Amino acid sequence: MNITATNLNLFVAFDALITEHSVSRAAKRVGITQSAMSNSLRHLRELFDDPLFLRTSHGIVPTSRARELALPVRDALRLLERALNPAVFDPAASTRTFVLSTSDYVEFVLLPQLLSHITKRAPGVRIQTLPWGMHQVPEEVARGQADLMIGFYDKVPAYHREALLFEERYACIVRKGHPLVRDKLTLRTYTSLKHIMVSQSAGATSGIDRALAEIGRSREIGLRVSHFLNVPTLVSSTDMIAALSRRVAEPFAKMLPLRIFEPPLRLRTSRIGMVWHESLEDDPAHRWLRGMIAEVSARL
């Protein structure tokens, strides 16, 4: 391909199409008409000799060739933006929107303090969150659809950077007046009860299950839910038990009829960190955002 004969605006259109999965929304994203975006798509198909996007009842979906192109195109556009934009960032004057991929746990624990911290220093900056509860880094970070991911994760993909923010301990909660839990939560009682587990996939195990297996025990999962913040309400109205983050358990115990106990077995602390694509490592605005997040996390 001869790049000197290629309209670079086509790559801006491609990035919008793969982000929005809609010709009309992609056109709106880059500020052109829908017919102009359709024309860009036609030229892209000719350029790559591939349909790139297939129409469905729910919009357009990328072909395998388009998925292969998504990350290289996005990285190239980021480099071009950085070359064209001044290498400074003025928080007080910025109106930039940062997109964070994160879980309801992080939204509950970190987001209120982060917003307060940012608003004082950058009143025009906006924060948008994308829901993400899996213990892995979402593809949106590599695609440029999210500035970074904050939460629990097992490993960092290639071409990404990470920073540990804080650690979290488990607490066990049961409802007040539970018929089987008195003044102390024993391991025998703990394993005899039905448990509520936060999980994004059926059949998944957790660090609690692994810790129990190490001492030859197991537990019965009575209910799986996808969000941390549902757990306290469910526990308060049932005879089930749950182990969840202490920073979630303690505020809810002040609002609901709940009792908090130390887990009756040794559990590892959970590590909460932030992960971003290495192409944003030296971006001044991104460095500022990471600094804000680190400052707030250090005070939790």
Structure, described:
Helix content is 40%, strand content 22%. By secondary structure, the chain is an alpha/beta fold. It folds into 3 domains: 82 residues, Winged helix-like DNA-binding domain superfamily/Winged helix DNA-binding domain (Arc Repressor Mutant, subunit A), CATH 1.10.10.10; 99 residues, 3-Layer(aba) Sandwich (D-Maltodextrin-Binding Protein, domain 2); 99 residues, 3-Layer(aba) Sandwich (D-Maltodextrin-Binding Protein, domain 2). The strands form 4 sheets. The chain has a 5-stranded mixed β-sheet with strand order 4-3-5-12-6. Helix 1 crosses helix 3, helix 2 packs across helix 3 and helix 6 packs across helix 12. The protein is elongated, with a radius of gyration of 24 Å.
Biggest sheet strand line-up: 4-3-5-12-6
Radius of gyration: 24 Å
Shape: elongated
Counting helices, strands and paired strands, the structural category is: alpha/beta
- What's the β-strand tally? 12
The low-pLDDT segments are none
CATH architecture of the largest domain: 3-Layer(aba) Sandwich
What is the succession of H and E elements? HHHEEHEHHEHEEEHEHEHEHEEH
Mean pLDDT over the full residue set: 91
What's the number of helices? Answer: 12
| Sheet of most strands | 5 strands, mixed
Strand fraction = 15-25%
Q: Looking at CATH, which topology of the largest domain would you report?
A: D-Maltodextrin-Binding Protein, domain 2
Number of domains: 3
What is the share of helical residues?
A: 40-55%
CATH class of the largest domain: Alpha Beta
**What is the rounded distance between the termini?**
52 Å
Determine the CATH superfamily of the largest domain.
Periplasmic binding protein-like II
